[in-house]
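Service request form, structural biology core

Requester: graduate student, group of Dr. S.
Request type: structure prediction, single chain
Budget code: on file
Notes: please return the result as structure tokens.

Sequence provided:
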Amino acid sequence: MKIRLLIVFLLAGLVGFAQTNTDPLDASKVKKLKLLQSSPQDAIAEFGTPAKKDVKNERQKYTFRAKNSVLILEFNKDNALSAYNLTKNFPAAKAHLAGNDVKKINAGATTPDEITKLFGEMTQQVINSREEKWYFGQGSSYLEVDFPSDNPGKVSKF
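Core staff response, request fulfilled:
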């Protein structure tokens, strides 16, 4: 009986840990932000208390941090979101760059799924109000692939 209770207790703890161990700066949450509509209160409700808050000329800048991620939100003097930038690093990612695979990318046609099949896991992702950028590789040997925010399903440049 004691062993069963211990197992139930341990499983409950693992479930609780799994539920609370999610990325608070998830890219899908950031993409839901609305320029000129989302407020500082919306940001705090979604991402929690900012790690840093700056105010300059009636404009606010909030910085949120999580493991391997930084989100910067800028609000205009009317407290409406004017810009955002999310940078996520994936240090354990395994990208593989091959010159011939780069030739398979077609701006306006290649999809995010096709990019992942060609190059593996991205090593960094940057999302801002204009575009989303994926980086593969590290140091001086890397590939940058851009997806515009108005057509995120197709590569715009690389």
